[in-house]
Amino acid sequence: MTEGRRATVRRETAETAIAVTVDLDGAGRFEVATGIGFLDHMLAQIARHGVFDLEIAAEGDLHVDAHHTVEDAGLALGQAFREALGDKAGIVRAGSAHMPLDEALAFAAVDLGGRPYAELDLRLLGRTLGELPADLPAHFLESFAVALGANLHVRALAGVNDHHKAEACFKALARALDAATRIDPRRAGGLPSTKGAL
User: Fold this and answer.
1) What is the 3-state secondary structure (H, E, C) of the chain?
2) What is the domain-level CATH number for residue 33?
3) pTM confidence score
């Protein structure tokens, strides 16, 4: 369901049941419950620092592990962003941001041009973030980029603490998405592409 720049997506499989609502022109409000505390914390960063309103309710087979819930949450969120963007008329299209968090520094760049690709280096050195395996934040971002149809680069440039590096990466992503999804009034509703399509 899409209304304005707002979309609701439901994704149900034998492994997960996920409902996502995103409003690209929100105020940074969020209500997130995936059953994975650290993932909830990262999703809150996307909402608050991207100034998107975000609701996510997920039930997954966490008795197996967190993989399916993280992957499907990324896919559902990416689909919701894609649907909320509609035909992408008038958007800025691309954005980038740096974000520090204490000793950590992250960079994110996104292009909403419809070519899914993810180049990620979060430099997470430990085994877990809370109860979340340390390989899954990158897998979430990859799933998000594929479903959104975005070219996404996210990189930790400095840092020692894995929590700080991951959080800086998600905050940088949020700010890059905020920039890329904005409407540019100079475009008068035109598409930001020489191809005439995104």
Assistant:
1) CEECCEEEEEEECCCEEEEEEEECCCCCCEEEECCCHHHHHHHHHHHHHHCCEEEEEEEECCCCCCHHHHHHHHHHHHHHHHHHHCCCCCECCEEEEEEEECCEEEEEEEECCCCCEEEEECCCCCCEECCEECCHHHHHHHHHHHHHCCEEEEEEEECCCHHHHHHHHHHHHHHHHHHHHCECHHHCCCCCCCCCCC
2) 3.30.230.40
3) 0.95
Instruction: Tell me the residue type at 58.
Output: A
Whether 144 is covered by a domain: the verdict is: yes
Domain count, the chain: 1
Q: Is residue 151 part of a domain?
A: yes
Q: What does the pLDDT look like over 160-192, one tens digit per residue?
A: 999 999 999 999 999 999 999 999 999 888 887
Q: Let me know if residue 194 belongs to a domain.
A: no
- Structural domain containing residue 24: 2-187
